[in-house]
Amino acid sequence: MGEPPNGQPYIGVFARAWAKAVAGTSYLPMTHAQLEALLQRLTDLLAKALRAEPLDLRVGHRVAQELVAAHIASAEALGRTVEVIQLRLVRDLDLVADDIEDRMARLLGAVATGYARALRDRTLDEQESIRRAAMTARAEAEQALRASEARFRHQATHDPLTDLPNRTLFAERLAAAVDAGNGRRVGLCFVDLDRFKRINDSFGHQIGDRALVEAARRLRRSVEPHLVARLGGDAFVVLVERSTGTGDVVAVAEAALAALSEPVVVDGHDVTVTASVGIVERRTAGTSPDDLMRAAGSTLNWAKTAGGARWALYDAERDGQEQARQELSAAIPVGLERGEFFLDYQPLTSLHDGSLLGVEALVRWRHPQLGVLRPDSFIGLAEETGLIVPLGGWVLAEACREAVGWASASGRPPYVSVNLAVRQVRRPGLVQEVRALLRRTGLPPDRLQLEITESTMMSSSEEPVRALRALAELGIRIAIDDFGTGYSNLAYLRDLPVTELKVAGEFVRGLRTPEARADERILASLVSLAHALDLTVTAEGVETGGQAERLRAIGCDAGQGWHFGRPAPPDHILARIR
Question: How far apart are CA 394 and CA 400, in angstroms?
């Protein structure tokens, strides 16, 4: 049987044998038919090469490269390829030549050599691809890490509501500005929105938050390029890192106030926001971030205290005075524990016969560094901080304890008069506390007088009035202190358990000159009206005999002041009684 044209049937037979030999030796991303078509084409190349003159060994290299490119790229695949070509190619294609065996050997060597080179090149290419992929992956990972770090850094240093820098970032920038040195100056504007709680209470927190966001936007825009940070709540701070003087920082504060003063419309609601600003500006040398923030906070409080919607400038002298007050306030509890407080007593004298009716207990503080302090140095502080409750309780207990000893003297012993602060009167349990105190000390109720202010009596709450009525029912005297400096309304006294009015010294002071008739007529009217209500009247601040005589003439019952005796220790009072 003769050879068909081009030997194609024989090539197909050999290609199928070749495909069967290499199938399964490598992962092949092709169908079996595709594999046979590929190997049939390569068989044709090998056959032509064996017939050609001269023998072109590059065909062997090309066949090997195409095998490797088709993923027929394992040692087993190469071995089977060499085997099937060597055993069957010449026979199946009926190739005849004198040097056919030599040609076949050389061609198979070229295939093997090309196969090795192709595998090497493929390995290098794959390694390069892996290296590039690794470099790309590393670069992408580093970029993602940097982006993630930047995102986390932003989240850690910015306020989530307003996106302004937060306290952390502000502290970093402030510390850097202070550490810069070289004679630089730095300024702070501590900004706090006035009465912002009312916005939340009136419109809800959602609208309040949106108003805060708008306020933050306006603030940042108005003071650019300076750093604006939100410290929390409705408090912001502006950092002026390279100030040239106080005027720079004042200009920033005024720009902030102007920007915030414009009404904000949120969901159809007109929300009016004003702010107070505390300003501090100084050289960076000799200061610290904590000093700057504390000074700015104090100054902000001054602006708030002055009514808000304004700025206040730091004043070292004023700040020093306030720090001294705070230190004094903080020392009150320690002073009570150490027994540093004591009482002096000032006589309350009858204007009719000069007898001693009672004494007013006046607290003093024997401060270890400042010496003896009068009440006007610390009572106001105690009232502001609430320490007036324990301090006032001690005064009341000590006055009752000491007054009990005066009962052994001949004659009628005087009552002791003790001031009660507003916080004491409004404190639950006052009646039980006083009742227990009288029981413990043995002081008769009618020998205790409690002095209160007019503002205490004018409270809208019924509790203080009920407490005073209960005390009066025990037999305790109730007096209105400094009468005439407050409401001066005798009408409210009709239904209250008051037994005495103590007229303020401002009215008595006018009695020093004979021509001062207005004060005398006012006092006469007060005395007349008080007597009509069955109240006794004690005039405070009596310093001269002339004042005492004119008070006696208008019917005033008692007097208190230096004319009758200065505040003195309890043993002096006891000596006077005897």
Answer: 10
Query: How many structural domains compose the chain?
Result: 3
Whole-model pTM over 0.90:
no
Residue 144's alpha-carbon distances to 129, 135, 141, 149, 153, in angstroms, are 22, 14, 5, 8, 14
Write out the residue range of the structural domain in which residue 475 sits.
328-577
Is 160 inside a domain boundary? no
Do 343 and 296 belong to one domain? no
pLDDT tens digit sequence for 412-436: 789 999 999 989 998 889 999 999 9
* Separation between Cα atoms, residue 231 and residue 204, nearest integer Å: 21
- CA–CA separation, 238 and 188 (whole Å): 6
Structure tokens at 118: 């192709």
Q: Which two tokens stand for residue 174?
A: 């402030």
* Helix (H) or strand (E) run with residue 170 in it: helix 167-179
Q: What is the dihedral of CA 72, 77, 82, 84, to 10 degrees?
A: -100
Q: Is 157 a domain residue?
A: no
pLDDT, one tens digit per residue, over 94-105 is 777 777 888 888
Residue 537 identity (one-letter amino acid): V
SS3 at position 266 = strand
CB 478 within 8 A of CB 472: yes
Identify the three-state secondary structure at position 356.
strand
Amino acid at 75: A
- The alpha-helical segments, DSSP class H, found in 204-245 are 205-223
How many residues would you count in the chain?
A: 578
* Helices and strands of the chain, counted as H and E runs: 22, 16
